[in-house]
Design a protein that fits this description.
Layout: E1 12-14, E2 23-27, E3 30-34, E4 43-49, H1 50-58, H2 78-83, E5 87-92, E6 96-99, E7 105-107, E8 113-118, E9 121-126, E10 131-135, E11 140-142, E12 147-153, E13 156-161, E14 165-168, E15 171-175, E16 180-186, E17 189-194, E18 199-204, E19 207-216, E20 220-226, E21 230-235, E22 237-238, E23 241-242, E24 249-251
Antiparallel strand pairs: 1-24, 2-3, 3-4, 4-5, 6-7, 8-9, 9-10, 10-11, 12-13, 13-14, 14-15, 16-17, 17-18, 18-19, 20-21, 21-24, 22-23
Length: 252
């Protein structure tokens, strides 16, 4: 008989009022949220201090308070807005693809969209060509991998390609026939959410063959983490149906 994997005891909570969040980024000591969607004329970039978010999550007495309600009067009532901890950073007319190194929104109308940096080269996505390029100080050069997401783990860079391969030091360290998403976990490990198994696990750079499962239930097509203290994920499906308006899950 195979032993069932014993998962760590974690708190997993969600708030129905977070369904409007389409993407998020944890940067420095802040968490940035957006409601950005294609063909929207008003796209909000909002922020909350990480410590404020964590305090609200860990204090059950605040769960009924709408601390993560959208601050727009078109989406929330005055009482909810008075309770939100979210701060409006910018309102833009185009889809927010990513944030740059200064946490400013990268808009979808640019030809080359910033992905991140590796080996002193900046990498960009060209959505029309559906290819990835890097800038060599003179021109954009097509890269050998078509990158969906790139993350830094300590001094190393991990790549997730559009064909669901995870690349580390030019080697495929994990792959799947279905969707994958990655996020930083700590200075030596990174998270993987896998659609095929609905597992959330991490791989350590010192032992890439060991799959460390920490939770199972849904696939997160948006995923980020702050130094093992908090994982934020946005599920892709409900009852096997794609739904981009599902609430976030907070795991700690």
């Amino acid at each position: 008989m195979n032993k069932k994997t014993k998962l760590p005891k974690l708190t997993v909570i969600e708030f129905p009022e977070t369904g409007w969040i389409s993407n998020f980024w944890i940067r420095d000591q802040n968490v940035f949220f957006t409601d950005s969607a294609l063909n929207k004329k008003q796209n909000f970039l909002l922020s909350m201090e990480f410590k404020v978010l964590l305090e609200n999550l860990k204090n059950k007495n605040t769960w009924d308070r709408k601390f993560i309600t959208h601050p727009s009067p078109l989406l929330s009532n005055p009482i909810e807005i008075s309770q939100t901890e979210l701060k409006i950073e910018q309102i833009v007319s185009e889809y927010i693809f990513n944030l740059d190194e200064n946490n400013n929104p990268i808009l979808n109308d640019a030809e080359y969209l910033y992905l991140g940096q590796k080996d002193n080269f900046k990498f960009y996505k060209n959505l029309k060509l559906k290819k990835t390029f890097f800038w060599n100080e003179k021109a954009f050069i097509e890269y050998k991998y078509n990158i969906r997401k790139m993350i830094n783990v300590g001094d190393e860079t991990i790549l997730l390609t559009e064909d669901n391969q995870i690349i580390y030091q030019d080697m495929i360290v994990y792959s799947s026939s279905q969707n994958l998403m990655i996020a930083n976990f700590d200075t030596k490990a990174f998270l993987i959410s896998e659609e095929a198994t609905t597992e959330l696990f991490y791989l350590n750079l010192d032992d890439l063959n060991k799959k460390n499962i920490i939770w199972k239930g849904v696939f997160f097509f948006r995923l980020d983490c702050f130094n093992k203290q908090l994982i934020i994920g946005k599920p892709l499906k409900l009852n096997d149906q794609i739904n981009y308006h599902l609430p976030l899950k907070f795991i700690y």
